[in-house]
Design a protein that fits this description.
Length: 208
């Protein structure tokens, strides 16, 4: 009775776990919404704090995901949307998470374009034939990324980092094929400085 009274006072719908798992929509607050927001964040669709409340921001994120997946974009996370979301996280989650962590560690102070650019360098290396053939192997190749070497890779990535990783995985490449980048203000490697610069985004020069 007390829970119901609180919900009525706040104007919220408190969903039972079974009901929440079947259909989530605006006005619901539950652990299932927490999971939904975390999954949307991991896929780069949700860039607000995880609250467990299904408000307009969550609704917009669900609608964006639905549009990207060719689903009916009603902003309601029903069984079809939730199943598709689970499939995408399972299929792409670890790769996306690793790339987001690298982007956050290497470029969290950069613009969104600058963050996508760092992710694109990883993808360009995978496709180049000059580096390992998987994203994970490129990221963890010894001595290649400062964030991996100094532990910044282990920081928790933001939703923006996940979104930048998603764009890079989808083919966005502001660098036009760069394989390297460095900050000319702090770089000490003469080899890096000797390579022709393709373009500069924020603090990073991108090279081949």
């Amino acid at each position: 009775m007390l829970l119901g009274a609180c919900a009525m006072t706040l104007g919220l719908t408190v969903a039972a776990p079974s009901a929440g798992a079947q259909k989530l929509e605006q006005g619901i607050r539950s652990e299932h919404v927490v999971q939904l927001q975390e999954q949307l964040s991991e896929l780069g669709y949700f860039d607000a704090g995880v609250t467990g409340y299904y408000g307009s921001i969550t609704q917009s994120a669900v609608r964006e995901f639905q549009q990207a997946q060719g689903l009916s974009a009603d902003g309601v996370a029903g069984p079809v949307t939730l199943n598709r979301l689970n499939q995408k996280v399972k299929a792409e989650g670890e790769t996306l998470r690793q790339l987001a962590k690298l982007i956050h560690g290497e470029a969290r102070g950069e613009s969104f374009e600058g963050q996508v650019a760092v992710g694109a360098v990883v993808l360009n290396r995978v496709q180049s034939g000059e580096f390992p053939s998987s994203i994970s192997e490129v990221i963890f190749q010894k001595g290649q990324f400062t964030a991996v070497d100094d532990g910044q890779f282990n920081l928790k990535p933001t939703a923006t980092s996940f979104k930048a990783a998603r764009q890079a995985l989808n083919g966005a490449d502001p660098t036009h094929g760069a394989l390297f980048y460095y900050n000319p203000k702090i770089a000490t490697s003469e080899w890096s400085k000797s390579r022709p610069t393709l373009l500069t985004i924020g603090q990073h020069d991108f090279t081949r």
